[in-house]
Amino acid sequence: MPPPIEIKKDFCLFHKGQIKGDVYECKKCGQPYCLECAKKASLEGKPCIKCKLAFFL
Ligand SMILES: [Zn+2]
Ligand SMILES: [Zn+2]
Is the pTM above the cut of 0.85? Predict the structure, then answer.
């Protein structure tokens, strides 16, 4: 059996927790966020934390 590796690919940088429900992936860097967090960030004019590209929803 391979050793357990913790991959935090479903980690949302906005609420700093595991992504729940629908996932939004940044169009540029592919960073995943909760769809709800991405919507909220878009309304507040906040870009992707990683690459600073605006959210397109
Ligand atoms: Zn989130
Ligand atoms: Zn990005």
Answer: no
Closest ligand to C-alpha of residue 41 is 1
Domains of the chain: total: 1
Q: By residue range, what is the domain housing residue 15?
A: 11-43
pLDDT digit of tens for each residue in the chain (57 aa)?
Answer: 766 665 567 899 999 999 989 999 999 999 999 999 999 999 999 999 999 999 988
Torsion from C-alpha of 42, 30, 8, 12, nearest 10 degrees: 0
The pocket of ion ligand 1, defined by CB under 5 A, consists of: 12, 14-15, 34, 37
